[in-house]
Amino acid sequence: MILSLIDILLDRYFKYPILYDVIIGLTISSITFLLQLKEVLQIEEERVFQTLSDVSNISLTLTGLILTMLTVLITFKSNAMVKDQKSELTEKEVENNEPNLFELFFQSELYFVTVSHLKGSIAVLLLCSTIGYALRFLLNDTLLYFSYSFNWLGLSIIVLAIVRTVIQVNEILSLQKKNSPKSPPSK
Asked: Which of 105, 120, 141, 163 is the most exposed place for a label (fewest CB within 10 A)?
């Protein structure tokens, strides 16, 4: 029951992940903004601006990491396609030739979904980083509350991008596990 509910929620989330990231982040930011106005949360100017720099740096670093992952996936697929075009197998070799796990992944819908989600993560993290740096350059007291709320938005987007990437990696591992030959139990 709970697992099917989680699957339903994840399916909905993965249809428009960036939209949901922003909605969740804006909700958290709005709540913290209201708590600021009611003086439940106290703002320390130094901490807000330091956190703003941290959120911007983390977003930019994650953008590079995810871009690297995407580049590796695309390069591996390109190399696999070139290898397939160059190899001329005999009829007997074709019968005995099973696709490896990379080929299965590259031929599945999961590859294109993964690439799409990674590209979306790159875009939203890059935007988050750019806004954070712009706020840092335009620093003044009137932007203090906005910067504080943006920190929560940025942090939410960072966490959700990481979670989404981990879920995608788990999906790839599940595909590999499902299609790998059964190994004998270890002694």
From this structure: 141
